[in-house]
Amino acid sequence: MGNNPQEAIKKLKALMDQVDQAMKKSFQNVHQGFITETIDRFLKAREYDVAKAHKMLVDCLKWRVENEIDNVLRKPILPADVYRAVRDSQLVGLSGYSKEGLPVFAIGVGLSALDKATVNDYVQSHIQINEYRDRVILPSASKKYGRPITTCVKILDMTGLKLSALGHTKLLTILSTIDDLNYPERTTAYYIVNAPYVFSSCWKVIKPLLHERTRKKVQVLPGCGKDELLKIMDYTSLPHFCKRESSLSSRSSARQGGNNCYSLDHFFHQQLYNYIKQQSLINEPVEPIRKGSFQVNLQVPASKSKGAARTIETELRKYGNRLSDTLIELEIM
């Protein structure tokens, strides 16, 4: 355990003043003017150990510079039909805001196929949503509510969960690692809804094994979770799958366009799509952006790290490896 929080923040701020100009420029995209809150997130992820948090943040900035993450919102996924395929199979969207002003992201864990595009396409989409959240959504919410808003709420829908599917574990681990090392402590609470019985049974065993900080964030709600979620958000901010007493209609509702926050026709994805399109026209590169041109170096977490994803995967292997690709989602985005 390191220094007290305020002292640790002060020390890490001083260390960040010493990084090179390329990393300082990238750091501006990370903190968006909320330097103290950003420093605190990285410190919290490393138990306020200044040396470890400093290494984590510097490694993050190196990764951003080396992989041109600051330009990722200028790189649309092409061609358009590939982007639509990504959106149809990587189910995530912004459904609204909590009563405290936190963005509410919905993730269709059970119905996400993740088999309609390449790994690079899904990684690019994931990073773009992270960056759009951090550079556009959160700063806009902070301005609207007149205070720093640097975290979000996530609702994980287990509708359609395939208990025997393990084919996506590698991709989900990649996304989880990217988030764990570069976007720490962005989620205040995870709400799991429409969970099948076997998930609930396994969760009772896994929950005590998680780090206390992570464990406190996760709640498995009964049914679609509507009654509990209405305590923290208005009805209009509920994802479509929480507005129905039965989750059986969730798949058909995925075709309802604007009412479904996963859909490319939803306002969030329309805004994101148009934003990236407009950004791509600014200082347009000499050579056109080619499909498959976006790749990132995959990072390897510290060998001693025992995050939620790793703990969950290990324990679920004892249950016959039946749910690991789903539960790893708890550390994603």
User: What do the pLDDT scores average to?
Assistant: 85
Write down how many β-strands occur, each being a DSSP E stretch of 2 or more residues: 5
By CATH reckoning, the class of the largest domain would read: Alpha Beta
Q: Helix/strand/pairing class, anyone?
A: alpha/beta
Work out the radius of gyration. 19 Å
Distance between the termini: 26 Å
Indicate the proportion of strand residues.
5-15%
CATH architecture of the largest domain: 3-Layer(aba) Sandwich
Shape: globular
- Whole-number count of domains: 2
Which fold name is given in CATH as the topology of the largest domain? Phosphatidylinositol Transfer Protein Sec14p
Quaternary structure of the protein: single chain
Order of helices and strands: HHHHHEEHEHEHHEHHHHH
Low-confidence stretches: 246-257, 320-327
Major β-sheet profile: 5 strands, mixed
The amount of helix comes to 40-55%
CATH homologous superfamily heading of the largest domain: CRAL-TRIO lipid binding domain
Strand order of the largest sheet: 1-2-3-4-5
By DSSP (H or I, 4+ residues per run), the number of helices equals 14
Pfam family, one: CRAL_TRIO_N
InterPro entries: CRAL-TRIO_dom, CRAL-TRIO_dom_sf, CRAL/TRIO_N_dom, CRAL/TRIO_N_dom_sf
Domain CRAL-TRIO: 79-250
Protein name: CRAL-TRIO domain-containing protein
